[in-house]
């Protein structure tokens, strides 16, 4: 069993999976454990659709790719990425993206190749299960606190997954098409999609899964007084 620090350090976003399914009892254990995530006033504002039905996943992916191909850049409930990228975050984004493209011999200036690569998100990187995390629209009407709670819940899912030798990839790409996903899942009108987490058994032979973006030094992100 990994220690908490081991789970933190061995987690990294994996973008190629084996077709081996994640048993439902393991999904339940992970989501039950993630349900212990603290939240303001114990609201527990997350509502998760754990989807392993291949047809449903394909339909969601097809619907998103159809929008992309029609030139629609988003159809979302919330704006995840900054509207105006400033440094140092802009630089970190470029360094992280370039590193991945370089590893895969993709020319960073080849927009079509990059878009095709991004579409892998909506093929779930070959994984058989995706957790789609929603909250109630009322919770984000004039308030942002539940984003903190649901972000912590995301990390809980990803760390709990490590205990079962499972890997994950958090997805803000799906945030951008949250309304498409809500429609495909026939989610109730009061729910808004926040993000998804792909979960499965990573393909250790896939080159893309060797990518581990570095982190800035502690001194650049923490101030001790
Ligand atoms: C909220 C969130 C959204 C993300 N969205 C995507 C995504 O849509 N597709 C993707 O391939 N990676 C996505 N990532 C993964 C990040 O690129 C990754 O966490 C970061 O580069 C650090 O790498 P690591 O997770 O391997 O440590 C996302 C991560 C987070 C936390």
Describe the structure.
By secondary structure, this protein is α+β, with helices and mostly antiparallel strands. It has one domain (about 5-80, about 125-210): NADH Oxidase, CATH 3.40.109. The protein is built from seven helices and four strands; from the N terminus they run H-H-E-H-H-H-E-H-E-H-E. A four-stranded antiparallel β-sheet has the order 1-2-4-3, sandwiched between helices. It starts with a helix and ends in a 25-residue tail after the last strand. The mean pLDDT is about 95. The structure holds flavin mononucleotide. Flavin mononucleotide binds near residues 12 and 212.
Strand % is: 5-15%
Q: What would you call the shape?
A: globular
CATH superfamily: NADH Oxidase
Side-by-side strand order of the widest sheet: 1-2-4-3
Q: How are helices and strands ordered from N to C?
A: HHEHHHEHEHE
Bound molecules: flavin mononucleotide
In this structure, how is the largest beta sheet organized? 4 strands, antiparallel
The name CATH uses for the topology is: NADH Oxidase
CATH-defined architecture: 3-Layer(aba) Sandwich
Top CATH class = Alpha Beta
Number of helices: 7
**Helical proportion?**
25-40%
Structural class: alpha+beta
């Amino acid at each position: 069993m990994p220690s908490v620090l081991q789970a933190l350090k061995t987690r990294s976003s994996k973008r190629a999976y084996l077709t081996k399914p994640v048993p439902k009892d393991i999904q339940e254990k992970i989501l039950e454990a993630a349900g212990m995530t603290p939240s303001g006033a114990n609201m527990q504002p997350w509502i998760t659709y754990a989807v392993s039905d291949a047809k449903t996943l394909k339909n969601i992916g097809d619907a998103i790719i159809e929008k992309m191909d029609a030139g629609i850049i988003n159809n979302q409930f919330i704006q995840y990425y900054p509207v105006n990228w400033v440094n140092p975050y802009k630089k970190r984004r470029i360094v992280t993206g370039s590193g991945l493209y370089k590893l895969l011999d993709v020319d960073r200036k080849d927009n079509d190749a990059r878009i095709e690569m991004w579409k892998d998100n909506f093929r779930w990187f070959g994984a058989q299960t995706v957790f789609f995390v929603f909250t109630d629209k009322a919770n984000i009407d004039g308030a942002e606190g539940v984003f903190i709670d649901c972000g912590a819940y995301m990390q809980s899912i990803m760390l709990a997954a490590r205990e079962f030798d499972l890997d994950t990839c958090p997805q803000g790409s799906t945030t951008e098409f949250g309304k498409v996903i809500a429609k495909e899942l026939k989610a109730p009108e009061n729910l808004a999609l926040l993000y998804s987490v792909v979960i499965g058994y990573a393909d250790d032979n896939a080159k893309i899964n060797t990518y581990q973006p570095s982190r800035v030094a502690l001194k650049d992100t923490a101030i001790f007084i």
